[in-house]
Specification:
The chain is α+β, with helices and mostly antiparallel strands. It has helices spanning about 5-10, 15, 25-35, 40-85, 100-105, 140-145, 150, 160-165, 175-180, 220-225, 230-235, 255-265, 275-280, 280-320, 320-330, 335-365, 365-380, 385-390, 400-425, 430-435; strands at about 85-90, 110-125, 135-140, 155-160, 170, 185-195, 200-215, 225-230, 245-250, 270-275. The protein has a six-stranded mixed barrel with strand order 2-3-8-5-7-6. The chain has 20 helices and ten strands.
Length: about 425
């Protein structure tokens, strides 16, 4: 008598008659006995373990990649919106010579957290080493610079107080390294929009002491932006007494449209208003498309692992054909046999999904130590910030996306178990026992 037949003999009369409730204790016991590795069924056990490992790695890969994509988008959004205004006021009919009055009125709009008049322009910067690099010079008021937390709270060298004296500039950490500059050194800024002479426009060249070095964690900004006092920037770019634009920060960037009419009314002058979504639309749309594409591509990994479940269950049906036949002759229904093999397939999928979820969770929680370890192992920066903008690998798990990954894995495991379970239920006991 086989182990399955012994299990059936030990079952109650209702279970032997095939009238047990769906997924009864008897069916769960038989499914568990089928999944337990046995020495004479090594091939089935190996394929089952491969299926389990495949589901685990597929689920973990999906969770990790989606978390990194979400973290990458969130960090980029925080840094971009932390430096640039959520809305930008541009003049239409005349220059912004009344920027102080307009700023004061707009600052009084409910929900507006900061208003920052700006003068900015492209220039070439040189220092103690290197051939120089293109930079964006942004002239801002001292009080606005202090409120710009993304910069003022990330000063690595020098101090805000030194910058507020008004005779120097603040530069990014990567620019400081590229040009060999430290606080106190002079940085030479060259602008093509210089003085007008009888022989044409000559470039304007002026040196400023470096008063502060900031590090936002976004390589593009840390390498290319120079902050300069507004009055000095007005003189340097020939914009005395005016601002080019006014940047507006609000407390709910995702709902900027609700502020638009109030800001236009408060400005009391013709203006052109744009928000951060319009200025970065193509960039963030590309990130969303990439995230969705990665989800679809990595879902194939889970699908392939589910196909391994099909293979392992088909082999299990062939190995257990005699035991299934005995179950049928002792009163088990086709539905009961089908549920047994469905539970066996779902069991592999459930354990693999749970293990993949835990693995993905651990990797996301320890993504930075893992990055440092990989850097140490490879001897180089595996996450090059000059290519990927950010200095560290971000990871931010979305509970809804994680739930979607789990449901996807369990659904594919259930679908993968249907065909082998149906074949087991249709097994003819007479044919299976003919030569026994």
């Amino acid at each position: 008598m086989t182990a399955v037949a012994e299990t059936e003999a030990a079952a109650g009369p209702e279970e032997r008659n095939g009238s047990a409730r769906p997924f009864s204790a008897f069916e769960r016991l038989v499914a568990w006995r089928y999944l337990k590795p046995r020495r004479k069924e090594a091939a089935v056990s190996i394929v089952t373990m491969i299926s389990l490992a495949g589901v685990t790695l597929g689920v973990a890969a999906l969770i990790i990649v989606m978390a990194v994509m979400n973290g990458f988008r969130a960090d980029l959004l925080d840094r971009i919106l932390g430096l640039n205004g959520h809305m930008v006021i541009s003049p239409i009919d005349s220059a912004l010579t009344d920027y102080d009055a307009v700023s004061a009125r707009v600052a009084g709009v409910p929900g507006v957290t900061m208003v920052m008049p700006i003068v900015e322009g492209q220039a070439l910067a040189t220092g103690n080493v290197g051939a120089g690099s293109g930079v964006l010079v942004r002239g801002v008021r001292g009080e606005d610079f202090v409120k710009l937390d993304a910069v003022s709270k990330n000063i690595k060298e020098g101090s805000i107080e030194a910058y507020l004296t008004g005779d120097g500039v603040a530069i990014g950490s990567r620019m400081a390294v590229d040009l060999g500059l430290v606080p106190g050194d002079l940085i030479k800024i060259i602008s093509p929009e210089g003085d007008i002479t009888p022989f044409g426009t000559t470039p304007r060249v002026k040196s400023y002491p470096v008063r502060a070095v900031f590090e936002m964690g976004m390589s593009e900004y840390d390498r290319s932006i120079i902050f300069m006092p507004l009055e000095e920037a007005q003189l340097y770019f020939n914009k005395e007494g005016e601002a080019q634009v006014i940047e507006v920060f609000v407390d709910d960037p995702d709902n900027v449209d609700s502020y638009r009419s109030k800001i236009e009314e408060a400005a009391e002058r013709p203006l052109f208003l744009t928000d951060w979504r319009q200025r970065n639309q193509s960039f963030f749309s590309a990130l969303i498309i990439e995230r969705n594409a990665m989800f679809m591509i990595l879902s194939i990994v889970v699908l392939v692992a589910s196909l391994n479940i099909v293979a392992s269950l088909i082999m299990m049906v062939k190995e257990k054909a005699r035991g299934v036949a005995i179950l049928r002759t002792m009163g088990a229904t086709q539905a009961s046999v089908m549920r047994i093999f469905i539970m066996a397939g779902i069991g592999v999928g459930f354990v693999g999904t749970a293990a993949g979820f835990v693995l993905g969770l651990l990797v996301c929680w320890n993504i930075k130590p893992i990055q440092r370890f990989m850097n140490w192992m490879s001897g180089q920066d595996v996450w090059d910030p000059t290519i990927r903008f950010l200095s560290e690998i971000p990871a931010k798990m979305n509970p809804y996306e994680t739930l979607a990954v789990i449901l996807l894995s369990l659904s594919l495991s259930f679908l993968a178990a249907l065909l082998p379970a149906w074949r087991a239920a249709k097994l003819d006991p007479v044919e299976a026992l003919r030569y026994e």
